[in-house]
Structure of AbrB family looped-hinge helix DNA binding protein:
Amino acid sequence: MRERIITGLVPPTITDRGCPADAGRGEGHGLPLPVIARHRELPVTYGMARVDPSGRVSATPVLHTLEWQPAQRLTIRVTTGAIILQPDQSGIHRLPSTPQIMIPATARARCGIRTGDSVLLVADPRRDILLVDPLPAVDEALAQRHATVWGGEPA
């Protein structure tokens, strides 16, 4: 029986420079190089957390971004299905001593947020504001994008 060399299984000859002998010659043998998306700095910080039975939400990264301190007085309001927290020296709400926010029951109810629900936290240091979005609102906002991506649009 004759010995047959299968070229796909034989490694290429390596030159003194440590490269395969046919590197850089002729037509490309591999796949095209991928296009890497440009990195974009975000002007906001995002976080996700679950709401506990007393309305507390862990918010360490977003509070750090905003540089809000424990006992910071806040105004909390609901608008278009989202909860907005803003510093306000005459505000009746305060940040707890732990890196959390407290969402009042009335605000949670107006946004359809229940115990155990996840919420999206959006800290905007330019506006000194924290936005709390319920996930159904996030899902609605991203529905068209997801339909496009899942539909198999070429990358």
